[in-house]
Amino acid sequence: MSNRFAQLTFTPDVQRHQREHGSDRAYRRMTEGPAEADRLGPDETLFLGERDSFYLATVGATGWPYIQHRGGPRGFLKVLDEHTIGFGDLRGNRQYITRGNLDHDDRVSLFLMDYAHRARLKILGRARAVEDDPDLIERLSVEGYPAKVERAIVIDVEGLDWNCRQHIPQLFPADAVHEALDSLRERIAELERENAELRGTRP
Ligand SMILES: Cc1cc2nc3c(=O)[nH]c(=O)nc-3n(C[C@H](O)[C@H](O)[C@H](O)COP(=O)(O)O)c2cc1C
User: Fold this and answer.
1) Strand ranges in the chain using DSSP code E only, listed in sequence order
2) Which atom of ligand 1 lies closest to the CA of 100?
């Protein structure tokens, strides 16, 4: 966990529980460092570039947290620079809950999973919707993807946290499974042909 992530999440209530359970000593150092936003390094950039979905939490005016799944072609969430990420906000059910929440509070939490490698990354940041910058919207669109980009969502990253892999189930994307099955099917067909030849019959 980075210092900045700890500074943003270790509230007095959280710290009180850490004290009660004896983990405060190990964590205290993190909250005492300089309050500088985390930078996206090569590991984060690679990881973000491979995602085809993530979960995005915003805060409503009622104080309720709200989580929405965001999906798109692999790499649709782009690293714009070492402090900034963005994605094209695709037209959906037109409830605009995330969009409306950002008018009230720009704080967001992203939760990014790689089930195949059992890895997860949490990001805290401040988000803004950009509706009047066609160049940016174009940059955050993915050619050929069948959905309309209504606006760009740009997020200034504040804190990062790589979680451990404990309790993450290992799941593989269907396209990777189909690819692996295709090569097995080809091999089985090849062996069936060879078997038929050896038996002197046709498959
Ligand atoms: C026709 C259509 C219907 C949808 N219905 C739902 C739905 O019932 N529930 C949901 O969570 N997302 C639904 N989605 C996906 C959301 O519209 C999409 O994720 C969008 O980003 C929602 O943003 P919001 O939850 O911030 O309003 C639908 C998308 C489309 C295209």
Assistant:
1) 53-59, 65-71, 78-81, 84-90, 107-114, 119-130, 149-163
2) 26
